[in-house]
Specification:
mainly alpha; 66% helix
Length: 95
Amino acid sequence: MKRPVALRIPDHLLSLADLRARKERVDKASALRQILYEGAESYALRLLSRGELSLSRSAELLGLSPGEVLDLAAQRGVEIGGTLAQHRAGREGRT
């Protein structure tokens, strides 16, 4: 669900939104939403990679399926879950 939110946006970020709007041929509001969403993706992936957010919750917050979140993480080179050594240690009862 979309709803209007009043924000104070610094001039330098508005200039960035103007640049994106021109380059992507979209209106400024769309450019701002795109920039916000990219930041949200980065933040959710960072929390997910640290184990501070589950895959299902990340997907829910981003409006994606869990598979799409995994694809996004792979595209951005973000490692999710433990390393192979951590998985082996967990199976052997060490953490």
